[in-house]
Amino acid sequence: MEKQMKMPKTLYGMKPNEIMGALGLEKAFQGKQVYEWLIRGVTQFTEMTNLPKPLRERLQTQMPSLTSSEVLDTQIDETGATKLAIQLHDGAVVECVLLIDRDGRKTACLSSQVGCAMGCSFCRTGTMGLVRDLKAFEIIEQFVHLCRIAPDTSHIVFMGMGEPLANFSEVIQAITYIHDKDGFDIGLRRITISTCGLIPGIEKLAELNLPVRLAVSLITADNNQRTELMPINKAYPLDALKPALIHYQNVIGKRFTLEYVLLRDYNTSAQSAQKLANFIRGLDVIVNLIPWNPAAELDWETPTNREIAIFTRELDALGVPYTRRYSRGRGVNGACGQLAVEHTTERGL
Ligand code: SF4
Known about the structure:
Blueprint: H1 16-23, H2 28-39, H3 53-62, E1 70-76, E2 82-87, E3 93-100, E4 106-109, E5 113-115, E6 130-133, H4 136-149, E7 155-158, H5 168-179, E8 191-195, H6 199-208, E9 213-217, H7 223-229, H8 232-235, H9 238-252, E10 256-262, H10 270-280, E11 285-291, H11 305-318, E12 322-324
Parallel strand pairs: 4-7, 7-8, 8-9, 9-10, 10-11, 11-12
Antiparallel strand pairs: 1-2, 2-3, 3-4, 5-6
Iron/sulfur cluster (SF4) is lined by residues 116, 118-120, 123, 125-126, 161-163, 196, 217, 337.
């Protein structure tokens, strides 16, 4: 007979033997069975049909929800991008987004923090300030909620709310869990960590030598402009960021991405293109051009197509490798830099 015990908030993030202990299971293989159901997105113990019925019923009564969080709101735009507002166990709310490429590839855009301390002036999340870091299980659960909508989600980007490298160990724990080949089995090369340029975090990532993809929000290669846009640039200016990126590149040996949000009449001039060309010299990078996604409370504007075309012609002439990202998720305020929640609600634990 299984022991009566205090149930955990969630089973996500636990290995089979930990699940066995947490649920007071008597047989080790039952921990594995529960783990496998969790990965398949089952939401109730009663659906775990290979467990004995009395055990299922006991667990269902003791732990009616398998996740510590719940979906409060779902919004879908015309591209199929789906934004979820997720309420956490303490009442805080985070957002995550399912993005669908033109070729049908599904990517989960996850948050690593509630809000963000970095205060980038072009980003809605930056207006919230930092509420708190997310625990690994809270990051994993975002992926679980999105996989319930799209079980074939194959890629992950940490480009939601928060600076992932400022919550390093929880993000790495979540990645390790999601990567587990007996679990979700998402390849590390399909996971992208985006950072505003937190050098100690980039160094720690190099130390781990984890072959995830890195995306660095450069936004401008003009140091004064960057300080104006991104407070992080005061602590880690471009002349410190570049050697850190060269070191990272030498260790990891893989091409990485520089994110360049295009801001109307600000970072799209011929001089901006030249500075960008100078900055990437010696770096094996591709520049991802992202026309700014509007956010009502911010003063920036999206460049016109003509302005973008002139800028990309300059980049072509300078031999800067770039891609132009077509924004997905704008229709639900779920595109890059648009995530923010206005309030957190009490849920009473
Ligand atoms: S761009 Fe990223 S790091 Fe900057 S405020 Fe927004 S979420 Fe934070």
